[in-house]
Write a structure and sequence with these properties.
With 260 residues, this protein is mainly alpha-helical. It is built from eleven helices and two strands, in the order H-H-H-H-H-H-E-E-H-H-H-H-H. The protein folds into two domains: 179 residues, no CATH class; 80 residues, no CATH class. The radius of gyration is 24 Å and the shape is flat.
Length: 260
């Protein structure tokens, strides 16, 4: 099984790949905050944000299909949460519909809120895809540690990344064993089998974690993760942060001028 679905294109050689992981993380965080705080209907700002992310994605030589596929994968979950906004938001009525015993109305302001939520979520996903696709996850975790994030959280993410693939391989072997035994029968029998597999996978994961911890302690693990690669803040990082920071500030100023 290929274990590269988290940071598949992080081994590339572009300007974005060579930036310090801390610089990219801080920019992505500020970008998401800027997008989230943008007022409703600020289409100029949204267009500028998209242009920034499109430029960074193309400069990083990331496949367009890959980026679009990953960014749109999360949209159904966002839509499930925000789909009811047009029906409960007050304002000018855009349409009225009879749904079984209820009559529901859709407002223009609700539709606008829904579109803004979807656009903000999509732009935020683009920034996260750019971040994870140009930064190796161990480097990103090291950057979080250097930025004084809670050490326990960083450790949990580190072990999750390291052993997620082991658990996936274990699950694939269990699935192969199940299929080789002619997995069929009634729906209830299939659900019972799936439940037994999930329980077995949990027990195996727990037992493996105990063995891994014992092995780490036996090798002198003291809770501190040591890495060979060191993060270095260079002139290119300062130039990148200053340039993109000015773009975000300019977008906010121009947007305020257009709205007033």
């Amino acid at each position: 099984m290929k274990h590269s679905f988290l940071d598949k294109y992080s081994d590339g050689d572009s300007f974005s790949h060579r930036l310090d992981a801390r610089t990219k993380f801080i920019f992505a965080l500020l970008f998401i905050l800027s997008v989230a705080l943008t007022p409703l209907g600020s289409w100029f700002a949204f267009t500028l944000y998209f242009a920034v992310m499109a430029g960074l994605t193309l400069a990083a030589k990331l496949p367009t299909g890959y980026v679009l596929k990953r960014s749109l994968a999360v949209m159904p979950f966002v839509l499930m949460i925000a789909i009811f906004v047009p029906f409960f938001k007050s304002g000018e009525i855009a349409g009225s519909y009879n749904v079984w015993l209820w009559q529901v109305t859709v407002t223009y302001s609700g539709i606008q809120v829904l579109l803004n939520i979807l656009i903000k979520a999509w732009l935020s996903m683009l920034s996260l895809i750019w971040l994870t696709s140009t930064t190796k996850l161990p480097h990103l975790l090291h950057a979080l540690e250097r930025l004084r994030f809670p050490y326990v959280l960083v450790m949990i993410l580190s072990f999750m990344y390291r052993y997620l693939f082991v658990i996936i391989d274990e699950m694939m072997r269990m699935k192969q064993a199940r299929d080789s035994r002619d997995f069929g029968g009634s729906r209830l029998r299939q659900l019972r089998t799936m439940g037994n597999m999930i329980g077995t996978l949990f027990i195996r994961s727990y037992e493996r974690s105990e063995r891994v911890y014992s092995a780490m302690v036996a090798r002198g693990f003291d809770g501190q993760v040591r890495v060979l690669d060191t993060l270095r803040f260079k002139k290119a990082d300062a130039l990148f942060g200053l340039s993109l920071g000015l773009v975000l500030v300019s977008a906010s100023i121009i947007n305020l001028i257009l709205l007033t």
